[in-house]
C-alpha cells in the first residue's frame, strides 16, 4: 500500500487533516494475495493517551490487481464503520498536543464481512480474525501548526 500524498514515515499534508479540507488521502493497494474476496482498511492514531483513535474504518472493499482509492472517496460498494469521532466517515488527523503517528492498515480477507454499517473496529477485527490472507501498512505523521 502507498499514498500519492505522502511516503511511509513522512508527514501527512495538512489538506487531509482537520487543519485543511479533512478529506482522505489517495491510496493505492497492490500485490493483493490470491483468493482475496474483500479488503478492510483501518486508519489509527497510535499516539493518543487512551490507546488508539480510529480515523477511518472501511470493509468489504472489492479487490483489484491494483486498487486506487482517490482522495475524498469511499470505495464503491464498501461499508463504513464508526470512527473515534462517532461518525461513519473519514476523520482527518487532529492531534491536540504534539506529533502523532497515523497507521494506515489494509487487510486482505477470504470473504466479505457480514456486519452492519457503523460497526466498530473491534467488531471488524473479530469478524476478520481468522479470515486474513495478508496485510500491509504505511505510517504518516502529523503535528498541528502553532497558533
TrEMBL record:
Gene3D superfamilies: PEBP-like
Domain of life of the organism encoding this protein: Bacteria
SUPFAM superfamilies: PEBP-like (SSF49777)
Family matches, as InterPro entries: PEBP, PEBP-like_sf, YbhB_YbcL/LppC-like
CDD domains linked to this entry: PEBP_bact_arch
PANTHER family on file: PEBP (PHOSPHATIDYLETHANOLAMINE-BINDING PROTEIN) FAMILY PROTEIN (PTHR30289:SF1), UNCHARACTERIZED PROTEIN YBCL-RELATED (PTHR30289)
NCBIfam families with a match to the protein in the record: YbhB/YbcL family Raf kinase inhibitor-like protein
Protein name: Kinase inhibitor
Organism in which the protein naturally occurs: Candidatus Gottesmanbacteria bacterium RBG_16_52_11
Amino acid at each position: 500500500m502507498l499514498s500519492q500524498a505522502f511516503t511511509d514515515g513522512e508527514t501527512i499534508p495538512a489538506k487531509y487533516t482537520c487543519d485543511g479540507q479533512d478529506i482522505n488521502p489517495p491510496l493505492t493497494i497492490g500485490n493483493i494475495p490470491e483468493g482475496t474476496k474483500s479488503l478492510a482498511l483501518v486508519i489509527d492514531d497510535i499516539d493518543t493517551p487512551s490507546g488508539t483513535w480510529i480515523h477511518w474504518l472501511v470493509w468489504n472493499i472489492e479487490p483489484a490487481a491494483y486498487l486506487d482509492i482517490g482522495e475524498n472517496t469511499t470505495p464503491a460498494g464498501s461499508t463504513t464503520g464508526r470512527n473515534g469521532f462517532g461518525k461513519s466517515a473519514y476523520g482527518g488527523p487532529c492531534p491536540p498536543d504534539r506529533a502523532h503517528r497515523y497507521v494506515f492498515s489494509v487487510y486482505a480477507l477470504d470473504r466479505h464481512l457480514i456486519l452492519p454499517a457503523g460497526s466498530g473496529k473491534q467488531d471488524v477485527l473479530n469478524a476478520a480474525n481468522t479470515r486474513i490472507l495478508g496485510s500491509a501498512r504505511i505510517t504518516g505523521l502529523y503535528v498541528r501548526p502553532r497558533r
